[in-house]
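Appendix B. Extra example for self-study. Work through it before the problem class; the solution is given directly after the inputs so you can check yourself.
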Amino acid sequence: MSDVIIPEEQLQRTCLYDAHVALGAKMSPFAGFMMPIQYDGIAVEHNAVRQNVGMFDVSHMGEIFVEGPEAEAFINHIFTNDIRGYEPGKVLYGMMCYPDGGTVDDLLVYREFEPEHFLLVVNAANIDKDFAWIQDHAKGFKCKVENASPAWGQIALQGPKAEETLIKVLGYNEAAKLGFYEFCDVLYKGQRLILSRTGYTGEDGFEIYTTPANTVEIWNCFLKAGVQPCGLGCRDTLRFEAGLPLYGDELSQDISPVMAGLGMFCKFEKDFIGKEALLDQKAGNLTRKLVGIEIEDKAIPRAGYPVELDNETEVGVVTTGYHSISLDKSICFALVDKAYAALDTPLNIRIRKKVFPGKVVKKRFYQTNYKK
Amino acid sequence: MSKILEGIKYSESHEWVKVEGNIAVIGVSDFAQKEMGDITYVDMPDVDDEVTAGEEFGALESVKASSELISPVSGTVVEVNSDLEDTPEKVNEDAYGAWIIKVKMSDASELDNLLDAAGYKALIKE
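Solution. Structure tokens for the complete assembly:
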């Protein structure tokens, strides 16, 4: 998470800011925006998404459009995943990397229905950095890059009842036909609405992109239909349980996709910025790897806590940790020396003055429930 | 409005102290539990551990945050409330009933540095 302190009057507000305040949300700065952390409690909101349906304001996310005859070649040059052969209506997850393999950002690439048009959805904290990076590297490619972030609002509707709720409230029967990581374009009040079967919770769900005014209307429709509003607090607990990284914690300029265990989103049969460094890391030339660790206690391993061996040698650091709401276990992601990254390796976590024994476990702590 | 009990002492870091002879019974205030939200874990010292006034003796954890517990007095821990290991939510339900540790004080004059109910009420400005 961003540690940069920005005075409140300089923080941006999403189109749903007033709606959050009206609901009595606990608001806090995040990624340069004033965002809702929770409305009714993290556990209540978390469980609503796991068992029923919840909605998040994710209007702070960035939307960058790339179009032109060389747009595909350009995106494939800066993107670790390979968009060739992906049809319109498909979404692909991957990263942009620095030449040394460090991560610029992780993002979604949408291949639009209009030929040679793509949408890149990036993290709110990185919009300016990403846009500058993309523009710089687009020189020499026949394509146009536009940061349209302020023109778009976004709601994530997530949970096992997301499809049923979406169709009941907004009437888009098309939603039922979308598979995971597919999208379609529909109209809301005559304006474009992107219905994307994606999310960041480990559950089925949709991300709904449209104008800020439409976003506010749709939010209110869902609210009237009884959908639980969910803040960034449970967004973090949900994504964490599902083994999903957060830029700034599990990915950064210093943490490459290969270190974070996201090598499957890097396609080495094509060229892209950072490929050589990532290949080298993949071949074993790296110092640290991201692992999951479970400890046998209710104490909570939090970001920054040291990971140690029995002899108190520090071999890593926690990046995110919780007492998992869905699993009732104390678990964390940690970056550890690669010699200690194998499953079942015993590792201790120092929590304040005490040391808690644990072991390396799979990072996907929670069995995800995506639509096939 | 947070509940404030008369007749006990408070620290500026939101612990309360109830004095029983030379024993200080220590917990956290209703204001503190409200600020923390749902408490999921109470990190407590062991019996016979030494605690020092103004220094950390444990922590409260909610889903999102961890908050240090600061000892209002110095002395030796004579009892810990092991009920809280399995039911940390008791701190939310009854902050003044859910004591955390009992300390045999080594210097009872440290109590003079603490706030009374009126002083604590002024501190939290509700």
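Self-check: Residues 76 and 119 of chain B are 27 Å apart (CA to CA). If your reasoning did not lead you there, revisit section 3.
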